[in-house]
Amino acid sequence: MFLIALVAVLLASFYFLDRLIRHEYAFHRDQWERDGRPNGFFFRPPELRWFRSGFAFQRCALGWPLYTPEWVREDPTARTLHRRMRVCVLIWNLGFISFVLFMIPHLIATRCI
Q1: Alpha-carbon distance 86 to 97, whole Å?
Q2: pLDDT digits (tens, 9 = 90+) for 21-53
Q3: Residue 112 has pLDDT above 70, yes or no
């Protein structure tokens, strides 16, 4: 059950990242272009470039949980989406690390490792 809840949190973080990219596209188009025109999970704007947009998406997905872009600081809606994404990423990481640390002794005791 714990792992199922963690996967739900991970999916929520993907959802908020997708919404944040959509918001950047709709309201901060110049910054979206400077970010490399990232696509989302479900968001495929007509201007995207397949390889470059996928790389830009990866850069945003890995970077935005660690820092707050300037355009997000100035936009209340983007700030809310960014904060929700960060919380979900934090819960996922802490939960997954806890799960692994809990399972290692169990696997050792059952001689699976």
Answers
A1: 16
A2: 999 999 999 999 999 999 988 888 888 777 888
A3: no
Instruction: Tell me the longest C-alpha to C-alpha distance in the chain.
Output: 56
Count of domains for the chain: 1
| CA distances from residue 92 to 12, 66, 106 in whole angstroms, order as listed | 10, 14, 21
The token pair that represents 4 in the structure block:
């199922």
For the entire predicted model, the pTM comes to 0.89
Distance, CA of 27 to CA of 37 (rounded, Å): 13
Q: How far apart are CA 113 and CA 106, in angstroms?
A: 9
Question: Would you state the pLDDT for residue 51?
Answer: 81
In whole angstroms, give the CA distance from residue 68 to residue 60: 11
How far is the C-alpha of 54 from the C-alpha of 38, rounded, in Å?
6
Domain holding 98, by residue range, is 2-109
Here the tokens at position 30 are: 């110049």
